[in-house]
Design brief:
This protein is an alpha/beta fold and about 300 residues long. Helix content is about 30%, strand content about 15%. Helix 5 (about 175-185) packs antiparallel against helix 7.
């Protein structure tokens, strides 16, 4: 196993058990903001509600996992450069991101970290395409569903499925893989019920999805996997255990089974991937609630 980070600031952490064309990514699981802007940033608990705690747990089930080690409120790698650093409430769910506003130097530092992170992700995708001829980048997110009112029956609103697959403008040739993922998610249960599944309902993909697929047309697939926050208290970030660990395990095994079928689903890809799921290890399951920070 090797572990390395982007340079110079280490905004993206990458763990590689073995080389694979299947990469996993958690963009928004971290709640940390660098020290020089921390005091003027929005409250950590308020930021947490709009972040994606726990998605690093999904990513770390795979042999190549990238986790962003900065809050999206510092710099958001899933937005284009002009929107990557939140500066006004309308940029971030009517939350005042900084008070007082960032100085020019602080803004430039955040943008530099953004460029560093994007370049690092690009490099890992490029490496996979060069070696294997293709890449699947599993883009994990989660989303709130109880903003205005407490919802006790999570399964009743079809507009907010437990698993939403964001496919944006994905090359139609990848359709067999997307359909297989949707079927696989449908076999998962939460609280004794089959989960609800949808495509492009809560989310159709963000900047990374569109960027990486456009950089390698027909060779890169970025399924944006958005998980409804049924597994946690949205406001506090407390996970519902042991259910959450089981959900991570079941969903990652479902995804892994589809990835192992890639040569059958898309014969044009040629060589099959190496084993897609890693053995269960402590660092796959020990992120700190709300921090997005597993062992370094």
């Amino acid at each position: 196993m090797s572990r390395f980070r982007s340079r110079p600031t280490g905004i993206v952490d990458c763990r590689m058990d073995w080389d694979s064309p299947v990469l996993a990514l958690s963009l928004h699981s971290c709640n940390q903001i660098r020290e020089d802007i921390r005091e003027k940033a929005a409250d950590a608990a308020l930021r947490l509600w709009e972040e994606d705690p726990g998605t690093d747990r999904f990513a770390n089930a795979f042999p190549v996992a990238m986790v962003v080690r900065a809050s999206r409120f510092e710099t958001d790698l899933n937005r284009p450069p002009e929107l990557a650093v939140y500066q006004r409430p309308e940029h971030c769910w009517n939350i005042e991101p900084y008070n007082p506003p960032l100085s020019h130097e602080q803004l430039q530092a955040s943008l530099a970290r953004y460029r560093e992170g994007i370049a690092f992700i690009d490099q890992q995708v490029d490496r996979a395409v060069e070696r294997f001829g293709y890449c699947v980048l599993l883009d994990f997110h989660s989303y709130n569903y109880q903003r205005k009112v407490q919802v006790s029956r999570w399964w009743e609103d079809p507009r907010r499925p437990v698993f939403n697959l964001g496919t944006g403008k994905t090359d139609p040739s990848f359709r067999p893989v997307l359909d297989a993922l949707l079927r696989a998610f449908s076999g998962i249960q939460w609280e004794g019920r089959a989960v609800t599944v949808g495509e492009n309902q809560a989310f159709d993909g963000g900047y990374i999805h569109f960027r990486e697929e456009a950089r390698h047309p027909g060779k890169v697939l970025v399924p944006s996997i958005e998980v409804k926050k049924v597994f946690m208290e949205e406001r506090t970030g407390r996970y519902f255990e042991p259910g959450f660990s089981r959900l991570v395990e079941d969903s990652c095994h479902a995804i892994g089974a589809v990835m192992e079928m890639l040569p059958q689903l898309l014969p044009r890809l040629g060589q099959p991937p190496p084993p897609v799921l890693r053995e269960a290890k402590d660092d796959a399951t020990t992120s700190l609630p709300g921090s997005g920070m597993g062992p370094a």
